[in-house]
């Protein structure tokens, strides 16, 4: 069974400050026509960036993958899949309908500049920052409580000679 997608976009507007197109309304994916992607509303199909809410209707399927949605949006807006950020998928009880958000950026550099860091890490466009474990951070915080003023930047305080 071939997956098919019909995409409807409403309240579609360009946001040049964030290098993306925003849609305050809903974007609907209807999975019935084989691999056909069509656009409704005032979306013009430019390769702009876009934040939109999507309603994905998939009557005979349990759910839809983010990668599938990302590739469909990329073909629709003539962008690469790296420029498309799909997030916040929520499937209604009983299946058949999913809501999601998407951002389609002008370029990969614009996505790296404006998209949330955790989404960039998930997409493989950024590396996760290294940090100490939770217990080590807590121990360091409690050690710093014993120091005062500029001693905190220097480290350990000197032992008193008795």
Automatic annotation (TrEMBL):
<feature type="region of interest" description="Disordered">
    <location>
        <begin position="125"/>
        <end position="162"/>
    </location>
</feature>
<protein>
    <recommendedName>
        <fullName>40S ribosomal protein S24</fullName>
    </recommendedName>
</protein>
<dbReference type="Pfam" id="PF01282">
    <property type="entry name" value="Ribosomal_S24e"/>
</dbReference>
<dbReference type="GO" id="GO:0006412">
    <property type="term" value="P:translation"/>
</dbReference>
<keyword id="KW-0689">Ribosomal protein</keyword>
<dbReference type="GO" id="GO:0005840">
    <property type="term" value="C:ribosome"/>
</dbReference>
<dbReference type="GO" id="GO:0003735">
    <property type="term" value="F:structural constituent of ribosome"/>
</dbReference>
<dbReference type="GO" id="GO:1990904">
    <property type="term" value="C:ribonucleoprotein complex"/>
</dbReference>
<feature type="compositionally biased region" description="Basic residues">
    <location>
        <begin position="134"/>
        <end position="146"/>
    </location>
</feature>
<dbReference type="InterPro" id="IPR053709">
    <property type="entry name" value="eRP_eS24_sf"/>
</dbReference>
<dbReference type="InterPro" id="IPR012678">
    <property type="entry name" value="Ribosomal_uL23/eL15/eS24_sf"/>
</dbReference>
<dbReference type="InterPro" id="IPR001976">
    <property type="entry name" value="Ribosomal_eS24"/>
</dbReference>
<keyword id="KW-0687">Ribonucleoprotein</keyword>
